[in-house]
Amino acid sequence: MKITFPVEIFLSPTQKTIAHYIGKRRQSSNENAKIKDLKTKKDMDSEAIHIQGFASEFAFGIATNLMPDFNIKPQQGTIDFTLPCGISVDVKSTTRQDGNLIEPVSKLKNLTSADICVLVIGELPLDENNKMIDNSPAKFTIYGWAWTRELRQNKRSLGMSKECFFLSRNNLHKELDICKRP
């Protein structure tokens, strides 16, 4: 199955509810296990980051016809998907409409590296208390992908007081055959 990016995905009301629930439970599970989030978004708390992250994973799963990991056990640096061809995937999400593929350099020591990183831009509408806004659409756009080694060739400071790996969304690969290794 070959996918050409960008791909737009709208979560249904039921999918939004599931994404909200899983994201909240993952954050709670990590907090109880004292796993510190490697926060890269100044304007979002940890719970919102987990909710938005899982909603983006769910959108990628819909686009590729793959099941996301609904597990809520404590986790950090896990692989989000393994494609039928054996390539592992880390879904990188942002709510910024001008977003790019970013990974904090500090995450290197805490993760199992996936083969590729996929950029998903979108938002599950939340109020200031991270309650879901039911009547608002949840649109996610999958912009493309990069080999993790490609992403990690370019370091820069993005004003978050952390050094990050950065790849412009304009430089992402725009096709992916999930059944064949590129």
Notable features of this structure?
three-stranded antiparallel sheet; 182 residues; alpha+beta; 10 strands; 24% helix; five-stranded mixed sheet
Strand order of the largest sheet: 2-7-6-4-3
Element-by-element helix/strand order: EEHHEEEEEHEEE
Indicate the proportion of strand residues.
25-35%
* Number of helices in the DSSP assignment: 3
Q: Can you count the beta strands?
A: 10
Integer average pLDDT: 89
Q: Class by helix and strand content?
A: alpha+beta
Which term fits the overall shape?
globular
Distance between the termini: 13 Å
Uncertain stretches: none
Percent in helix = 10-25%
The largest sheet, given as strand count, sense and whether it forms a barrel, is:
5 strands, mixed
Domain tally: 1
What does it look like?
- By secondary structure, the protein is α+β, with helices and mostly antiparallel strands.
- It has one domain.
- The chain is 24% helix and 27% strand.
- The protein has 3 helices and 10 strands.
- The protein has a 5-stranded mixed sheet.
- Strand 8 and strand 9 form a beta hairpin.
- Helix 1 packs across helix 2 (46-64).
- It is globular.
- The chain starts with a strand and ends in a 5-residue tail after the last strand.
